[in-house]
Structure formats: structure tokens, C-alpha cells
TrEMBL record:
This is FAD-binding oxidoreductase. Residues 35-206 form the FAD-binding PCMH-type domain. Belongs to the oxygen-dependent FAD-linked oxidoreductase family. Its cofactor is FAD. The lineage of its organism: Bacteria, Pseudomonadati, Pseudomonadota, Alphaproteobacteria, Hyphomicrobiales. PANTHER family: BINDING OXIDOREDUCTASE, PUTATIVE (AFU_ORTHOLOGUE AFUA_1G17690)-RELATED, FAD-BINDING PCMH-TYPE DOMAIN-CONTAINING PROTEIN. Keywords: FAD, Flavoprotein, Oxidoreductase. It comes from the Bacteria. Pfam families: BBE, FAD_binding_4.
């Protein structure tokens, strides 16, 4: 590449092109995970589909490594690359809600918070994750689970349509009626098949929810985990409730008497009035010891969605591993508790997110997301603001995962995988759907142009 080529490319885009040496370069290349430091050759800020087409063609024709950045929330930093071209979609962040059809067209640069803000005004929501800074594109393309999943399914299960720029620079729309094979692949297959520029989602009536954290001394965690596993299959699907093994942060708003103490957390969100929410939780809470605190209350849905934002700002050190979990045996609980007692930092955690209910009413073969018979999606995350803690949080996460993985299924939610886990893990995540995905990859991206991702290589 020479400066003249890049200058011509920059002149052909409506958005801003940033290159090494520009004053804004270092800020523009920063990633959510501060443990990862990548230096792309060019960052192309796209503002519309025409910009994306131009950028894809430029990258392909000049044999540049391409990385696609939506919300930029990816754990292993797959929204960037070294010495290549980053196609940055963050400026494409418009949301248009159709309240009559209960749908929303969402730009690929949107965060979950952008979507929640737009839909909540109409008393509607799309099922999504638990941190509002999460990019909706990466969340959707690899599945997406959160508080509304038990009732309304994965984020990808609520995808109706997607606009896509393919590797050859062509533009297509994928839905059940048009390019249905591509649509199948987009619902869980990640960013392997093209650059999605906008999504159309089915929305659901969600407004005020009864939600908040309930925390116990981790000394009670064995009992809580046992009761939780027994309670969940009988719980109404309006109740989203994930379990965490964590540490209470030594800062407000947490009571100072609990600072630095290990806890077992139930983070609850009931889609409905407080009275019914309390009734739904009573069979579980009545069988448990008194908690340290119960901060549940009525709140707007976007409030619970953003509750953890302040704890996990951009630039922290992150290393995570995930698994799909079908059963939670007593032996597995013992392994969890042994490892959770060794957390290397106050922010490090283990979460079990329910993926039952509506998720299991869709067949394994109906979308690329294959693991429809698991009960939970687990994540173990070593987190700390100090770069000098990168080694300890990584080692703890790996050791924890190695201790509990024998009790889990073979695959994991792709968004909870780092880029050092190998093809076998990705194939396990997709199971019987992997070969179809590889065949579709060969059709839509035969040269594997889009490979900075949890990569599915084209079928031979």
C-alpha cells in the first residue's frame, strides 16, 4: 500500500478514514479489552452501505486483512487486526421503530443501549444481553442471550431480516423468504458470511420490570446453586434469573461491611408487576437463608440492562472462557466453589445464564445456533483494571475452566470464546450444523475474506 492509494480510498468514502500517524489513531484503535493491543493500517469509518461496499472492495482488491467493528465489545478483540483494514460501523447507529408491526430496523453500529432507548419509548424491547454497551451486531450474529431469553428466545431468534454486503461487494437482503440459506447462517454463525449493515428485529411488549440483584455470603453458595438448579425448570418464563459467583466491590453503592467479600448472586428480572414477581420468586427465596441484601424493585427495562455498565468500562483487562451446561451436579458445584474461592481480583466472576424455555422450542437445525438442549450458557471471566494483573486473571480463568469443563458440554457460546481455543471448540459449539455452515461459507466467502472472527473456514 502507498499513500496515494489510501488517499484515493479516503476520498471515495463519506466517512472518516484514519491511518497510522493521524492524531486520532491511538484513540480510534483502542479496544474494549485493554489486554489486546492491535495496530491496523487503516480504520475506515463507514456512514452508509455505499461506504461499506467501497471498503470491502478496497480491502479485497488490495489483499488487506479485514476486521469488522460494530459496537466494539468483543472479548478477544476480533473487531480489529494488525496491519489491515478495520471497517468501523459505529456511525451507522440509527434505529427506526414500527410500533404497529412491533419491529425495529437497527443499524449495525448500534449498541444494545441504543436499541433499548429507541424501543422503550413504545413499551417494546428485543431480547439482548446484560450490558448496554454491548454491540447489537456481534451479539445477534452469534446468538445473544439475556434477561428476556427464557420468554422470547435468543436475540438471533428475533431477527426477521438483515442487509448484507458480501465478499464480492454485492448487496443482498436475507430473510426467510429471500436468501434463506444466508439468513439461516446469520442466526448464530457469527460474522463469517458478510458485513451486516442493518437488522430488522421482532419486538415484544416490555416496559417496567421487577428486577435487581440478591446477594448472599458465598458460604451459602452450595445450597443456593442446588436450589437454583431445581427451581429453574419450574420457574415462569417471565423470570430471567442468572447466578453469579463474584466478589462485592470495595466501593459504593455496596455496603462497606461487605466490601471485598465473596458472594453468590442471583440477578433477577421479572417481566411484569412486582406482586407477580415476588410470587414467582417465593418458592426459591423461601428455601434459602436470608441474603446480605435484596435490591429488587420496579424499574424501566433499560435500567436493568445498563445496571452493570459502570462496573465494566472500556479498557479493562479481560480473559474469558465459556461452556454450554446441561446439568449442574453436586460434583460440578464443588468444582465451581473450589475455583471461585481463588478469584484473583474483585471483578473476576462466573455467571450461569439460562438458555431454556423459548430457546428450546426451536429445533437445532432451524438456525445456525445448535445448542438448543443446554440449560445454561456459562462464562468465567478474569477481569482487572491493572495491566499487571493480565497474567493472574488469565491463569485463573483457564484453571477454573479446566476444573469445570468435564461436567459441561463440548461447545460454548461463541461470544464467550477467546481466539486461542482451536477449531475443535468451535466445531463443538455448532455441532451438526458446522458442515452446513462451512458449505455456506464456501458459497458466500470462498476465499475466507471475513476471517477475523470465530472463523468457519470454507468447505474443501
Amino acid at each position: 500500500m502507498n499513500d496515494e492509494d489510501i488517499t484515493k480510498f479516503a476520498a471515495s468514502l463519506r466517512g472518516e478514514v484514519i491511518r497510522t500517524g493521524d492524531a486520532s489513531y491511538d484513540e480510534a484503535r483502542k479496544l474494549y479489552n485493554g489486554m489486546i493491543d492491535k495496530r491496523p493500517l487503516i480504520i475506515a469509518g463507514c456512514v452508509d452501505v455505499a461506504d461499506v461496499i467501497t471498503a470491502v472492495n478496497f480491502g479485497r482488491d488490495n489483499k488487506l486483512l479485514l476486521a469488522i467493528r460494530g459496537g466494539g465489545h468483543n472479548g478477544p478483540g476480533l473487531g480489529s487486526c494488525d496491519d489491515g483494514l478495520v471497517i468501523d460501523l459505529s456511525a451507522m447507529n440509527g434505529v427506526r421503530v414500527d410500533p404497529d408491526a412491533r419491529t425495529a430496523r437497527v443499524g449495525a453500529g448500534c449498541t444494545q443501549g441504543d436499541v433499548d432507548h429507541a424501543t422503550h419509548a413504545f413499551g417494546l424491547a428485543v431480547p439482548a444481553g446484560i450490558i448496554s454497551t454491548t454491540g447489537i451486531a456481534g451479539l445477534t450474529l452469534s446468538g445473544g442471550h439475556g434477561y428476556l431469553t427464557r420468554k422470547y428466545g435468543l436475540t438471533s431468534d428475533n431477527l426477521i431480516e438483515a442487509d448484507v454486503v458480501l465478499a464480492d461487494g454485492s448487496f443482498v437482503t436475507a430473510s426467510k423468504e429471500r436468501n434463506s440459506n444466508l439468513f439461516w447462517a446469520l442466526r448464530g454463525g457469527g460474522g463469517n458470511f458478510g458485513v451486516v449493515t442493518s437488522f430488522v428485529f421482532q419486538l415484544h411488549p416490555v416496559s417496567m420490570v421487577f428486577a435487581g440483584p440478591i446477594a448472599w455470603d458465598q458460604d451459602h453458595a452450595r445450597t443456593i446453586m442446588q436450589r437454583y438448579r431445581e427451581f429453574l425448570p419450574r420457574a415462569p418464563e417471565e423470570l430471567g434469573i442468572f447466578l453469579g459467583l463474584k466478589t462485592i466491590l470495595s466501593s459504593a453503592p455496596f455496603p462497606e461491611e461487605y466490601w471485598g467479600k465473596r458472594m453468590c448472586l442471583l440477578m433477577c428480572c421479572y417481566d411484569g408487576p412486582e406482586e407477580k414477581g415476588r410470587e414467582a420468586l417465593a418458592p426459591l427465596l423461601d428455601a434459602l437463608p436470608a441474603p446480605w441484601f435484596n435490591w429488587m424493585g420496579m424499574m424501566p427495562y433499560p435500567a436493568v440492562q445498563s445496571m452493570f455498565d459502570g462496573l465494566y468500562p472500556k479498557g479493562m483487562q479481560w480473559y474469558w472462557r465459556g461452556d454450554f451446561v446441561k446439568t449442574l451436579s453436586d460434583a460440578a458445584i464443588d468444582a465451581h466453589l473450589e475455583q471461585a474461592a481463588k478469584t484473583p481480583s474483585e471483578l473476576s466472576l462466573m455467571h450461569l445464564y439460562p438458555i431454556d424455555g423459548a430457546v428450546q422450542r426451536i429445533g437445532k437445525e432451524e438456525t445456525a445456533w445448535n445448542c438448543r438442549d443446554a440449560t445454561w450458557s456459562m462464562v468465567i471471566a478474569g477481569i482487572d483494571p491493572n495491566p499487571q494483573k493480565a497474567g493472574p486473571v488469565t491463569r485463573w480463568t483457564k484453571a477454573y475452566w479446566e476444573a469445570v469443563h468435564p461436567f459441561d458440554l463440548g461447545g460454548a457460546y461463541p461470544n464467550f470464546m477467546m481466539d486461542d481455543e482451536g477449531d475443535a471448540r468451535l466445531k463443538a459449539a455448532y455441532g451438526d450444523n458446522y458442515q452446513r455452515l462451512a458449505t455456506l461459507k464456501k458459497k458466500y466467502d470462498p476465499t475466507n475474506l471475513f476471517r477475523v472472527n470465530q472463523n468457519i473456514r470454507p468447505a474443501a
